[in-house]
UniProtKB/TrEMBL annotation:
<comment type="similarity">
    <text>Belongs to the short-chain dehydrogenases/reductases (SDR) family.</text>
</comment>
<dbReference type="InterPro" id="IPR036291">
    <property type="entry name" value="NAD(P)-bd_dom_sf"/>
</dbReference>
<dbReference type="InterPro" id="IPR020904">
    <property type="entry name" value="Sc_DH/Rdtase_CS"/>
</dbReference>
<protein>
    <submittedName>
        <fullName>SDR family oxidoreductase</fullName>
    </submittedName>
</protein>
<dbReference type="InterPro" id="IPR002347">
    <property type="entry name" value="SDR_fam"/>
</dbReference>
<dbReference type="Pfam" id="PF13561">
    <property type="entry name" value="adh_short_C2"/>
</dbReference>
<dbReference type="GO" id="GO:0016491">
    <property type="term" value="F:oxidoreductase activity"/>
</dbReference>
<keyword id="KW-0560">Oxidoreductase</keyword>
Amino acid sequence: MSSLTGKVALVTGASRGIGRAIARRLARDGALVAVHYGVRGDVAQEVVEEITHTGGQAFALGSLLGVPGDVEALYEAFRAGMADRGEEPVLDILVNNAGVSGSGRISDASPEVFDRLFAVNVKAPLFLIQQGLTVMRDRGRIINISSAAAHRSFPESVTYAMTKGALETLTLAVAKEVAERGITANTVVPGFVETDMNARRRETPEAAAVLAAHSVFGRMGQPADIADVVAFLASEDSRWVTGQSIDATGGIGL
């Protein structure tokens, strides 16, 4: 029996990059996965098809985060997707992966960009957790995806780094509050990963080499590197780990 058989997972921002890898890995481990997307429903459906083609279970749900009514719309779509499968709207694993970047240095900061980044990267996870707890079963898992930018000076994207710091503070508070139900809450901290978000930073071989050199392994991370850590935190094996920020940077800064 796979480790997550009978479990239901919701992964935000799961149509590409790290989220896509997480959705595929959790499905491989036996979970029914709700593949959330913001805009590209066609791409999210590709993820669902990849999962079902290999014997897994998944369905796509769309909800644009960072706008009024976003969390309500997401859980409405979740309930509808579960009902379509004849399932009760219960949840075991919530992965807050969706996020936006691009804030620039402090001289580039603007109220509009600040509000947008905090709305998607901080406000949405807070209320996704709040409402998710009403349907999450005991001994569930909350997993937030942060960034090495929250642990090291990253003036190139100051507001983005601030949002990830706030997300980790949220994890700490939630972990203590939900412990009585046997629910754990943890953060995974990626470094430079080969995703669309980092595409502009590795446009040339030289630029890619600079990013790879940050890791002691001399390469950039792959989405699967992060997904495997998430899979551990989603499993029963992680039952004694909570309130932690798990470094998954490949040894940046050692």
